[in-house]
Each structure stands twice: as C-alpha cells, then as structure tokens.
Predict the structure.
Amino acid sequence: GSDQHGMFGSALARAGSELLVGAPFTGGAAGAMHVWRLDGSVWKEAEALTTPGQGMGVGLGAAVSAEGRIAIAGAPMGDFFEGVGYVYARDAATGEWRPDGRIHEKASPALTAVTGNEVRCDSAGKAGGFACREADLVSFVPVSALGGKRGIMLNDIWGWSDPETGREYALVGRLDGMAIVDVTNPAQPVYMGELPLHEGASPNMWRDIKVYRNHAFIVADGAGPHGVQVLDLTQLRSLTNTPVTFTETAHYDRIASAHNIVIDTTSGFAYTVGNSMGGETCGGALHMIDIRDPKKPAFAGCFADPATGNARTGYTHDSQCVVYHGPDAQYRGRQICFNSSETAVGIADVTDKRNPKRISSASYPNVAYAHQGWLSDDHRFFFLNDEGDEISGTAKSTRTLVFDVADLDDPVVAKEFFGTTPASDHNLYVRDRYMYQSNYVAGLRIIDVQDPTNPVEVGFFDTVPFGKDQAGFAGSWSNYPYFRNGLVAVTSMREGLFLIRFRKGATIVP
C-alpha cells in the first residue's frame, strides 16, 4: 500500500502481534506508519496511519516505536523542520490505532526582544549581540511575538505608510499568514494582529505581499487553493484592542498558488508569477490582474516567454513591472516588466494585456538561478541576484549581476559585483543611491550604487548572531527600505523582525 518512492521500511517496531512499518516519503513526504498483522502464516496490511501534513509534508514514520497500546511515529519535518512525535493509542474495543496527541522537545529559548532604546553599532562592530557596520538596531521583535507558533518562520515583507494618519506598518509574511506591525515609533513596534492564510490553503514556506491604494495583496506558493488575498489596510485606523485576527476584504481565485506578486502602482495592474497547483498558471509566468478597483480584481491576460525558465514554459520567479521612464525612448511611457526567470532576465512590454510582447532576454556567465532583481531609480540598470551560484560553487562570494538596460532590446551585463561573504543572496531593493540586499545568513547588506557599475558595500547588519556567513537558506529573507522615516525593516526566518537604521553618508573606502 506504500507509494513507489515512499521509503517503505525506513523504520520498524513490534507491537504485540503487529508490525509497524514507517514510510516517511509516502504522499509527497507526508509519510505514513503501516500496520501489518499476521493472518495465519501470512502478513497482511491492516491499516495505514497518517496525519495531516504542513504543505511540504512531515516525514511521518522516519522512526517508529511501540510498547503495549501506545505507538509513536517520528516526523522530523513536522512543525517546519522542528520535528514532532505523533502518538497513537490502540482502541481496546476494535484493536485499531487512533491518534492520541503529539510530543516534542521543549522549545529552545528565543532571542530576546529589543525595544525601547536604539542600540548603536559600536566600535567593535556589534549592536545587541549582532554583527554590524554603519547600521544601528532600532528594535527587534522575535517570531514568537509576531503570532508565530512552534516551527513557524518569517519570509517576505512589505510596508504601508498611511497617507491619512502618517502611521507606518510592516506587513510581515509568516508561513501560516501575515502579521501586521505598527512601526510608527520604531523603538516601540506594536503587533497589531494577523491575517490567516485563505481557508483551504496549507501553511507553506513562501508568501509575498505588495500594496496598492491602501490594500495589501497576498499570495503563497505551494499552498494549494490560496489565490490572492486582499486586505483593506485602512481598518487599522480604528483598531483599539490589539492584536486582532483580520478577515480578508476580497479574494481573487483565478490562480491557486503563486510564488510572488508584483504591482505596478502607477498603472494599477498586478502580476502573479510562479503560478502553480491549479487555476490559470500562464506557464508559471505573468498572470495579469486589473486591480484599479482593489476590491474587485479582474483577470487581464497572460504573458510567458518560452525561451526562458528551466522547463521552457517561461516560468518567472519574480519580476518588477513599471511604467518605464528610462533612456530607451522607444519604450518610454510603456508598461514594462523585468522578469527574473530562472535561466535569464526577460523584458516584456505588457501595455496591451491582450497582446503583450517579448522585447528581449539576456543570460550571463555561470547561471544557477536567476532569482530576483530591481531597477535603478532612473531605469538605466537592473540589479539581479542569482540565488544558486554561491551554493553551487560557481561564485566565490555573494554575486550581484548588474545589467545595463539602456537599450531594452539588447540588455548586457555591465558588472559582476562580489560581496564580502560567501552567503547566498535573496531579495534586493534599490532606493536612491543604495541597494539593500537580504543575503540569508549574512543578513542585510547595504551597497552604494551611485556608480552602478562599481558598487561598494558601505554597511551591514547580520541578523543571525551565530554560525558562519556561508552559502545556504536561512536568515534574512527580505527587507523593505521604503518607509518615510528612512528605516529598513528586515525579516530573518527563525529570528524575527529587525528595524535597522543605516547611517547614510558614511565614508567607506573600497
């Protein structure tokens, strides 16, 4: 009864006259514990014990043990890799096994919150136990204080500045929903509450958030029928008792899961990318949505460039879509998307949603995974991070590709910029002359790109206070550098939310 690749037999235990057999990769790593009973001289499967997974599966049955009427199946990927033991009890009347709870070790002490007083990055390069340079710790809120239960991590982040009240909020992605934090007084952040994931969807590693006209738009990858959640953020103005559990204002169901959502706030169109698990996937590329009425999102069209993406469907991992105002006069005023599409950077004219056009695509040396990128303010350069080159060994340290896109029909690599650590890069954003990179275990890295072809690292804040800054997938997922007060909000997966103040204008000699 096990899956072909369920790893049936990974663990065995005797329970009286029964044999318990673990198969941790059954059902896409959800796992199972199979119960076999001796019928005369023949062993026959009597039942298969399972437990609801967590999107990516729990690996139930990696270890099994039994004594008397109690059996325990280990699930090392339960609670998002924290690990769980699921307990089953034999029914005295029927002899069948029934779920009877779960066990796990006592949680390790979380990092302590830092609030009240800004912690200066001192001459020894430390701020509250975190390594730093030219970047001060204004406050830190651990995951547990953002509504995160055992195993829950943070992922993406965006922000909202209320145009009426002036208050500022961090919209923080969790594996099981979105947390909202008032950061108006950044030394005293206030957890306002959470928006759970859409009903019927599963907790998952990936969530993304963007904002348009005072509404947050939220997607999740590998989550099943999640769609796009829409939350009216103006309701934050009238909250008195916090934290609260929010209810989505509207829902868009023409997609199921999506890796990311991109919004061109000038034109009022959203683009989901990395679409999967049902709905109109658009080849995993741009699913275009008219959100000019935020509460009534409407399908507008698809775009995919089959010349890009590992599966050659045009799959796009992330994108930035803008009303173009760069140096290429041919496309000025057009709606242009710059797509990070696994194997290359693609550029498309999506002004006519019924007839979008491929403009060009460009690869680069030692491609591993073209992950995400951002334009310079003048739309002349596009900065790309490749998430896989450090871990594959093709980049000696964190590598950022700088594309000269002055001619959209012919983008070219103008610079390979190498950072100061071997850490893998993840999301990056540009504001004015600075690029803010979330480089996983190396935390937030701040790069001066006033001369885009000669970037210089001018500051950093390492959000992981232990271990080496090496390639891998832990630590800082993303950051949001666009608050009016100039702070940078940073998510670190198992650590929490950091509010960082960069000392702009510091003189750093390359």
User: Anything to note?
Assistant: Residues 506-510 have pLDDT under 50 and may be disordered. The CA atoms of residues 78 and 368 lie 30 Å apart.
